[in-house]
Amino acid sequence: MGVSKIDFSCLDAYSRRAPDIDCSILKMFINGISTRLVSEVMDPLLGHRIISAAGVSRITKSLTSIVNKHHLRKLSDEYLYLIMDGVYFNVKNPILKKRRCVLVVYGIKTNGKRELIDFQLASHGESQEAWELFLNRLYHRGLEGKQLRLIVRDGNEGLKNAIATVFPMVAQQPCWAHKLRNVANKLHKHTQGACISQARLIYNASNANTALKCFREWVRNWQVAEPKAVKCLTDDIDDLLNFFKEPEHLWVKLRTTNIIERCFREVRRRTRPMSCFQNNDSLHRIIFAVFNRLNKSWELKPFKITHYS
Q1: Which residue segment(s) compose the domain that 16 sits in?
Q2: Which of 87, 154, 185, 226 makes the best surface tag, with the fewest CB within 10 Å?
């Protein structure tokens, strides 16, 4: 998904600029420079006010066809781990501003290389139907999950069920951060700090057996005072400890969806000056641009992977 692999032949030539100028502008946008800053950078080269932020924005619209090709590209089946989550953005429609959900799948390959595999706008939020549609598309493009060991997910019930449908043989790892937020919501305010602090000892344990001992002690301490919170954690405790079955140096990466939420923060940083996106295509373009830059930055920074027989 690196810039060097993108086909820019779809760019139109403009009468006042050579096509390679438009290509350079688009590459700057893909590499994280805002339309306003692109305009400022190009001013000394093209002349003051020759290309405005609005003009840059018009050029970036040609990125839509590149994004569409990205969504249709063939996928390899070399992934050991997948991390799945969703985020919401404001998108205008002809009548009003609407929050739209973007589903994202991040993967770690057998060679340790990591990438944001793809994303999809979901019309009806993080429903099971939306996630199944997205995951089935990835499956039929080549990601069949024959080497998958673990799928890390948020606490969404629809995603949990969708994974069980599309990848029924793959273990699931609920995100500890999401789970502890759910637990905290069921606690009395005066017990939140102590209870959650003790719960963190479970996933910070040195091994699975120690984690189970910490969990049992946590249950004994809070069962009477906070039964709803205890039930919330107990219901998923088996899956919550799945990350201990993987190499220890990957535990921090695999026990939460933080790795993908950091990518979302980068998207939000890039889009903060925008009150909302003009349409779905503009949302696709900016997310693709951010994800493309992140993927390129990770190409030479693979994780160390233990190879299983």
Answers
A1: 3-70
A2: 185
Burial of 257: CB neighbours in 10 Å, binned 0-12, 13-18, 19+: buried
Give a yes or no: residue 252 inside a domain. no
pLDDT band at 123 (very low <50, low <70, confident <90, very high): confident
Q: Considering its fold, how many domains does the chain have in total?
A: 3
- DSSP three-state, residue 257: coil
pLDDT at 99: 76
User: Whole-angstrom Cα distance, residue 79 to residue 109?
Assistant: 4
Query: 281 with 168, same domain?
Result: yes
The pLDDT assigned to 15 comes to: 43
- How many Cβ atoms are within 10 Å of 170's Cβ, its own excluded? 17
Picking from 70, 94, 120, the residue at the C-terminal end of a domain is: 70
Looking at per-residue pLDDT, the higher value among 261 and 191 belongs to: 191
Residues 129 and 211 occupy one common structural domain: no
Residue 49 falls in which region: left (phi positive, over 0), alpha (psi -120 to 50) or beta: left
Residues 81, 154: one domain? yes
Host H or E run for residue 133: helix 128-140
Across the chain, mean pLDDT equals: 84
The H or E element that residue 121 is part of is strand 114-122
Q: Is the pLDDT of residue 273 over 70?
A: no
Tell me: do 84 and 166 sit in the same domain: yes
Polymer length in residues for the chain:
309
Q: How far apart are CA 66 and CA 6, in angstroms?
A: 7
Tally helices (H) and strands (E) across the chain: 14, 5
How far apart CA 159 and CA 172 sit, in angstroms, is: 10
